[in-house]
Write the structure tokens for this entry.
Amino acid sequence: MASATIVLFSNTLRLADNAALLAAVVTRGPVIPVYIFDEQSPKVRPLGAASKWWLLQSLKALRDDLRRCGSDLIVRSGNTTDCIAKLVAEVGATGVFLTRGYTPAAAMSEQSLHEMLEKKNVQCRRFGGHLLLEPEMVRTKTDTKYTVFTPFWRTASELIDATEPQPAPKAIPAPEHWPTSEAIDSLGLEPKPAHWAEPIAAHWQPGEVAARERLADFLDGPVQSYKQARDFPATNATSSLSPHLAFGEISPRTLWFEAKKHMAANEAIVTGGAHFLRELGWREFSAHLLFNFPNMQSHPMREQFNKFPWGEGNSDLVHAWQKGQTGFPIIDAGMRQLWQTGWMHNRVRMIAASFLVKDLLWHWHEGEAWFWDTLVDADFANNIASWQWVAGCGADASPYFRIFNPTTQGEKFDKAGEYVRRFVPELAAMPDKYIHCPSSAPEDVLELAGVTLGETYPKPIIDRKKARAAALAALASIKN
DNA sequence: TTTTGAGTTGTTCGA
DNA sequence: GTCGAACAACTCAAA
């Protein structure tokens, strides 16, 4: 019998379109699927609480999927290189195959793993698949790195492999003796307290099977009106694939291929589909940026922002923002949606983020950390790049004068207040006219709606007009 | 080397 | 209520 190959599942919790797994299967030797829960390698950022909940479910789904193929999932916790060294010795593996990660921490970990395996004369093979394109592949005509989205995407989208992704293997050869595995339940991924994740669980079904279903549902309906409807948070017009993508339960190439296939068969979804794929381009762009400019994880892309006077103000304000108690309904709805479901609509993410960095003048690090902890779709590169974009200090960032007005945005994108009513029930009886600015409603309107400002719902925690002026002044102060 | 066109997502103010 | 201009200047990418 050929010797065993270890397949390391890290950011790729799927069987289909998994090049590392397929390559291991074709060696015809036994395959040992492994997941290492690693919070110990250098520079590794521990997962946020919401991501841990998702990971727990996703690992179980992956294990069950593997068992259906006659295989299993071996789980260990600790430093990846140490754990794999031990496993290689235990099972006498001659190869370790993995899907490449693109964060600085992943690159370091893979480098260390590679060096260890080389010394032991064990083959280490690294495959792509978490992105559409390897970051090394996309360069300008003068061989520099792109920092502006549109030209990046013009070039990158032409380079994407549009062939059909590989299906999951039907059977995966098992070893004669399985090495021991830690229990998935013993990794410490459960939310504490336990009931904390119940509303999240009601919203999401992690795992590869569910991811494919979600894609199919999206391509069957919402994609058609995606271009316009995706901006309206009360409608379910977005794909909601982000957490599945973040954990690699479905490959971006599958999204690319399936969307293109549907677009070719149905003229009506061509526009919506193109806009959807463009969003996939943003995921790609963020990952490429972080890969090319690893410093951006802590430092602004635009240097002059190193001297930006971030406020060191009142932490009560940040607390109010986190809990959805700012007195600005669209923001409060968004922040509560995030807390309850582990996800926030993209339009509202921009409004809420703009409020933290431009109205409260808090450092984007603060918001980035909160999102990292609470989003089920938290993605290191997306999170960093998007917060820098909102703060105006990122590559290709928004102009300094773009400061979202939460009231105007609410009135524009949630006209009837449907989204606000859903997540801020204490305002449910407010008439449409005042749902986004209860503080300017007449007394009798408030009374009729059962709202007492400062008691049942907060007064605005800041004066928007002053806040906007302060933000513009702060931005003016760092100009060259 | 120099030039040129362009750059996700907005708000406010005054006519 | 609607509309257009102002809000800055800078840097990127390609020709």
